[in-house]
Amino acid sequence: MRVLIAEDDPYLADAIRAGLRRETIAADVVHDGAAALEAVVDETYEVVLLDRDLPGVHGDEVCARLAREHPHVRVLMLTAARTLDDRVTGFELGADDYLPKPFEFPELVARLRALERRSQPASPPVLDADGIRLDPFRREVYRNGRLVRLSPKEFAVLHTLMKADGGVLGAQTLLEQAWDANADPFSNTVRVTVSNLRKRLGEPWAIQTVPGIGYRFGTAG
């Protein structure tokens, strides 16, 4: 999953981004409403974590425009206001969920993952194929009953490929889904990560290279 954090408090934004990365969620940060609207045009996000009181273009207007112009993007609105009227207004603007500040980080992660599931076709929360079982909530991977320890990026790449259900994904798609905007599209990051992931999972190789196109999950043959 890739999340855009639109929050004008740089310390809070950086803390949220660091926490999400530990949860294998790629995250980018902007600090005003205009930058948020520009970012969703330039990049692909499943969820926008939107501070309601953004400077410049107010968070309310950002929310309304996202709902109108980018209906596939889910919006989780953050605000210090806690009244029922504030929550109702947020939903009327097009927010998919609402979380008052201060909040507990595990609840934020749970709400983000719930919105991710709503933004995609229904799929089982635990993925199981070719002897590999991936639990995105416990962040555990087993191969034939053996626990496989993966780095956050390896886990994110495997999760993205397994969700594709045998489809071929290019390196650019994997960068968009598993890394943030600082990833260099001309580096060999994806190739190295896939290579390390194959080794950790062991033979038979569970990730196949499709020459000139990308990668797909599934053992050969």
TrEMBL record:
Domain Response regulatory: 2-116
GO cellular component term of the entry, any: protein-DNA complex
Domain OmpR/PhoB-type span(s) in chain numbering: 124-219
Residue list for modification 4-aspartylphosphate: 51
UniProt entry keywords in alphabetical sequence: DNA-binding, Phosphoprotein
SUPFAM superfamilies the record matches: CheY-like
Molecular functions per Gene Ontology: phosphorelay response regulator activity; transcription cis-regulatory region binding
InterPro entries named among the record's database cross-references: CheY-like_superfamily (IPR011006), OmpR/PhoB-type_DNA-bd (IPR001867), Sig_transdc_resp-reg_receiver (IPR001789), WalR-like (IPR039420), WH-like_DNA-bd_sf (IPR036388)
Gene Ontology biological-process annotations: regulation of DNA-templated transcription
Residues within the DNA-binding region(s): 124-219
Organism superkingdom: Bacteria
Name of the molecule in the record: Transcriptional regulatory protein CutR
Species of the source: Acrocarpospora pleiomorpha
